[in-house]
Amino acid sequence: MFYIREKHIKQASTKEISRQQLIHLEMHAFQAQMDPHFIFNSLNAIHHYILTTSTDLASLYLTRFARLMRLIIRNCNREWINLEEDIEALELYLQLEQLRFGPQFDYELQIAPDVFQQVTFVPPLIIQPYIQEAIWRRLLLRPAKTGGCLRISISRENEMLSVRIEDNGIHQAPSGDDAHLSQGITIAAARLEAINERYNMRAGITEQELYNEMQQPSGHLVIISMQQIAAREAVM
């Protein structure tokens, strides 16, 4: 009985440490998402539209910016959200970045028909840092300043949810000017690992460089995979 009691106490203590670690990482993820450079530059681009183009278009993008900020703030202290909410935040972010950079890149977002977004739950603020990195560290560095392509596909593979983020950008090592990008990636990976440990859930992130038929670098691929559990509340 003493052994069983000690085992239960140890398990409870481990779970509490894991929960506190997740809360700590979630707060850091929120801080990384609320990047002041992104906020300032988005508002500056909207202001430019007001002065030079169309107040209707400026109003549209301002509404999207406000919606994105509200989603980030609402989701920052939640361990799980449904995939539909996460996709909405991703699309709002991509639309705002396209507003700023115009023809430098286009994006495609494909979701397989057998992925039911409203009942598929994912940790928030995991996918977006990798998309941000693809834009800032690779697509915007293309010499032609045009023709960038970002492909995001989400599918089911048995019990796993697979998120593929592929770009045709130019790779560049991190610099001090984009330290917040590295921070976002580090936090996202740490959060996924902590969630993996807390819920005994299979999850992982893999990255690889892509090459064309001439064995020349042609892009980058990130695959985020996690066990797909439709009724996420069952483990909460």
TrEMBL record:
Q: Which domain of life is it from?
A: Bacteria
Q: Which GO terms describe its molecular function?
A: kinase activity
InterPro entries per UniProt: Bact_2-comp_sensor_kinase, HATPase_C_sf, Sig_transdc_His_kin_internal
Signal transduction histidine kinase internal region domain: which residues? 26-104
Per UniProt, the keywords (alphabetical) are: Kinase, Transferase
- PANTHER family, alphabetized: SENSOR HISTIDINE KINASE YPDA (PTHR34220:SF7)
Q: This protein is called what?
A: Histidine kinase
